[in-house]
Amino acid sequence: MSGAASSTPAPAAATAKAGVTIVLKDIVQEYPAPGGGTTRVVDGVNLAFERPGINMLLGPSGCGKSTILHMLGGVRPMGAKTPTSGKILIDGAECDGAHDDSVMVFQRYANRPDLSVFDNVAFPFRLKLWRQRIAETEWRQRVADTLKAVGLADKQRLRPAQLSGGQNQRVALARALVLRPRILLMDEPFGALDAQTREEMQRLLIDLHNAQPCLVVFVTHDVTEALVLGDRVIVLSAQPARVADDFVITEPRPRSGAWQRSGEAVRMEERIFEQLHASGPGRGSVRVTV
Prior knowledge:
alpha/beta; 8 helices
C-alpha cells in the first residue's frame, strides 16, 4: 500500500460524537449440528472496545469472526439463541438485537439495482430506517457530501450495474457513513476486490476515518490488511474462535511500503502466525497480500 496521503475531501459538517464502549463478556455461540448435538463456533471470547479506532478482527476463514461481528450488528440467525451464553454490552446496556449506533458493511454490498447511486445512499433516510429524524434538506446535503468524499459525486445518477466492483463498494460504504454511526462494523468488505482496488479502498477508509472518527470493527483473514489498517489487531484461533492474541500498532497511517517491509512489521506478521499455530490445528486459512 502506498504511503502517499490521499486528497479525498472530508464529509461536510462532520460533527464529533461522544465515544462509545463495547464489551463482550464470556461469549459462547453454538449451533445445532447435522445429525444431532451442537457445534461450538465461538468459545469464551472476552473483548472490550473503548475508543474510536480501527480494530481488526483477524482469523482463519470460517473460524467464527463474522459470527462475532454479526452479534454486534444485531444480525440474529433463525432457530438459534445468539449468543448461546455471555453478554454484549454497548455503553453498559445489554445488546441482544439491532442497535441504533451500529451500521454494517458486508463483502456483498447489496446495492439496490433499481435505484441510482444517490438513492442507494439515501435509502435509510427515505424509508426512515434510521432512528434520527433528519430534515430532507439535511439528509440530501449529507448524501451529496458523502458521495463527494468517496469520489462518486459524478456517478450519483448511475445505477449499480453501470459501476465497477470498487465503485459499488464505495456506494455501500457511503450508505453506512452518511448515517454518521458511532460503531461501524465491516465484514471483509474488500475481500472480493482486485489488489489495486483493495488498496484504493483501504486508503479511502483511512481518509474517511480520519475525517469522521468512529469505532470500527473490521473482519479480515488477510494479515497484510490487518497490519495496514489496524490500530489494534485481535487474532482469533481456528474454530471454535478464541482470542489467541491482541496487540496495538502505533505506526501512524497511512503505512508506507517501507514500513510494511520493516523489521517491526515482519515481527508482527511472524507473531500472528506463531499464535495461530499455537492455538491449535483447524480448518481455514489466513493470507498475506503480495
